[in-house]
Every structure is written in structure tokens, then in C-alpha cells.
Amino acid sequence: MTAALSSPTRGRIEVICGCMFAGKTALLIERLSEARAAGRRVRAFKHSLDTRYDVTRLATHDGRTFEAIPAADADAILRSRGDAEVIGIDEAQFFGRGLVAACQALHEAGVRVVLAGIHNDAWGRPFPPFPQLEPLQASRDVLRAACRACGAPGEFSQRMAPVTDEFMVGGVGDYEPRCAACFEPLPEPPPAY
Ligand SMILES: [Zn+2]
């Protein structure tokens, strides 16, 4: 008998969402690292708009990293997925609704997809693609961070600097975590997604 080959990965969509500073990227990196340690072919993607720490690595605020391919949109992820069995996508809100069809295609192709991102925008509304992924997801972890105003667990990202783009690509100092009671939605008219 030859050694048993590891069984093929089954299609699966895992969502990690929350506010800024909740540890979303850290959990994503942990899952991808575990899959790689288990012998899976893993590939990570980040949006090419997100250049805050490193263009070609996922990075946590405290310095953990995982190599990643910059992608301009969800189609670019499909084109560059290669033979990956596990695909990680960070800051999924930057890809918007286009990510839903891409996730569906990857799921049907037997790929395990782990996405992380912000699920409430600066106006307090659900951020695509998170509501749209709900019927497809196998798991959803909502991560919280201590509200900077009262200390309670928070799920919202309070914008502390003027918004200059609809994707809220902000620096570390542009947002702080807030609970629902302390969160103050931005007053300007919201952008259309
Ligand atoms: Zn609070």
C-alpha cells in the first residue's frame, strides 16, 4: 500500500468580520498558516488599494505577516488563484459585491475561502460583500474590539478623520473601535455601493 494521499479540500467559505483593531487579519493569518502547515496549497490576496503596511503581504497592526498577491478586483483573484486549495482574502470590503460571485465560483471548484474584513461602514451600514455572503458562508466569526469611549465590546469603526474615499482606506489613527451605543455615524450622505 502506498501512503494515503491527503483528501481533497472541500469548498467552504469562512467569514471573519468585525471592526478595526479586532484581530481579523491575525485570525486570517492563523488559519492560512495552519492550512499550510497541514500541507495545503495556500494563496492569499489583498486589494491593491490597500498599501498601508506592505503591498505584497497581509500584515497585522502588531507586525505579523503572510505573503499576498495584490488584486485590483475579484476577477483578478480568480485569474491568479493557480492551484491553490485554500485562498485567503483580507479587507474583503474593498472588493465589494464582486466578491460574492467569485466566492461562489471558488466554492464550486472545491476551494476553501477564508475572508476577513470590516462588516460595518463609517455610516453604520452593512458593508458589501458581508450581507450577501451570509447564505454562502459555512462559518462567520464576528470579532470585537474594546470601545475606546466606554470599554464595552464594539463592532463599529468610528471614523476620526475626514473621509476621502468610499472604501475607508484609513491609517491606524483614522479610526477607533466603538460599541453600538457610542458609535456616531458620519453625517455626510453615504456613497452608493
Ligand atoms: Zn462604547
Sequence-ordered SSE layout with sheet pairings:
Elements: E1 12-18, H1 24-37, E2 42-47, E3 57-59, E4 65-67, E5 69-71, H2 74-79, E6 86-89, H3 98-108, E7 112-118, H4 130-133, E8 139-143, E9 145-146, E10 153-154, E11 156-159, E12 175-178
Bound molecules: zinc ion.
Structural class: alpha/beta
Number of helices, where a helix is a run of at least 4 consecutive DSSP H or I residues: 4
Q: What are the distinct ligands in this entry?
A: zinc ion
Q: Kindly state the mean pLDDT as a whole number?
A: 90
Oligomer: single chain
Written as H for each helix and E for each strand, in order along the chain, the element string is: EHEEEEHEHEHEEEEE
Largest sheet features? 6 strands, parallel
Q: Beta-sheet strand percentage?
A: 25-35%
Strand order of the largest sheet: 5-2-6-7-1-8
CATH superfamily descriptor of the domain at 12-143: P-loop containing nucleotide triphosphate hydrolases
What is the radius of gyration computed over CA atoms, rounded to a whole number of angstroms?
17 Å
Which residue ranges are poorly predicted, with pLDDT under 50 across at least 5 consecutive positions? none
Gap from first CA to last CA = 55 Å
Global outline: globular
